[in-house]
Amino acid sequence: MTTTSSGIGSAADVLAVLRDLPGVDQVGLEARAAALSTRSIKKDAKRTAIDLAISMVDLTTLEGADTPGKVRSLAAKALRPDPTDPTCPQVAAVCVYPDLVATAREALGDAPIGVASVATAFPSGRAPLDVKITDTEYAVAAGASEIDMVIDRGAFLAGDLLKVAEEIVAVRAACERGDGTHAHLKVILETGELATYDAVRRASWLSMLAGADFIKTSTGKVSPAATLPVTLLMLEAVRDYRDATGRQVGVKPAGGIRTTKDAIKYLVTVNETAGLDWMTPTWFRFGASSLLNDLLMQRQKLETGRYSGADYVTID
């Protein structure tokens, strides 16, 4: 790797940046996250926050039993999350395995909803690079507008940061389309396996330097998945990275975010840490399909004054 797609420089330059990163103050980070989680918002602001959170959801199905019918059903929900209320916003994207990308793209039609595809031997990331590239190219050719790749955590934890960086650069190149555009690349760190906050910061910067458009906490297949302290740390990383390079990168916490209360904690953290520039689906997403139903029920509660019950929203 001679240069990164962000123009930072050689592999040696990238590794030098990682070596110079300061250590993470674990106590301070967790205290800051805990303080932000206690913030409350008023009723009018809550409606705005709920609609914003709905618009940030990547509606996802990633099971071995996925069928074209299930993907079409998910796409219908993405288009009209609340069929009884046309003012309810659409979600940001539908995320599926590569072989179901074409089904999702057809079902969504021309709607401004992304089709995201996991690739690169999801969720393990353990495959030869040429297999990862083929996986990515297939999904892009089928119509994916976003690729969620997973890093090789084994290589990262073994200290082979150059291999991890080179794979991200290669997958980013595979996201290119013939018209000069590219499918946005979301790089999954699987923070639950990285063990330390220092490792999460290092993986975040490595991914951004290698060309990630988004950094994502988790596959949702490993516990712990998204946590507020880890997301706070990643938000600090994208904020500082933009200050250093001028390039903005998004953040996607995924896995374990199930309630409206949780989503609002994350939105407060985004606003207080990275700022308003990240308070949009372009730069912040929730990888949490089960969250959508709770958001819809809370939205209906604000409208009617009572809870509608889980049977008033579709089962994903």
Automatic annotation (TrEMBL):
> Quick one: a GO cellular component term?
cytoplasm
Which terms does the UniProt entry file under GO BP? carbohydrate catabolic process; deoxyribonucleotide catabolic process
The main enzyme category here is lyase
Q: Which InterPro entries match?
A: Aldolase_TIM, DeoC, DeoC/FbaB/LacD_aldolase
What Gene Ontology molecular function terms does this protein carry? Answer: deoxyribose-phosphate aldolase activity
**SMART domains given in the database record:** DeoC
Q: Which Pfam families match?
A: DeoC
Top-rank taxon:
Bacteria
- Biological or metabolic pathway of the protein: Carbohydrate degradation; 2-deoxy-D-ribose 1-phosphate degradation; D-glyceraldehyde 3-phosphate and acetaldehyde from 2-deoxy-alpha-D-ribose 1-phosphate: step 2/2
Gene3D superfamilies the record matches? Aldolase class I
Q: What keywords does the record list, in alphabetical order? A: Lyase, Schiff base
Q: Which gene encodes it?
A: deoC
Family statement: Belongs to the DeoC/FbaB aldolase family. DeoC type 2 subfamily.
**What is this protein's name?**
Deoxyribose-phosphate aldolase
- Which organism encodes this protein? Mumia zhuanghuii
The Enzyme Commission number assigned here is 4.1.2.4
Which reactions fall under this protein's catalytic activity?
2-deoxy-D-ribose 5-phosphate = D-glyceraldehyde 3-phosphate + acetaldehyde
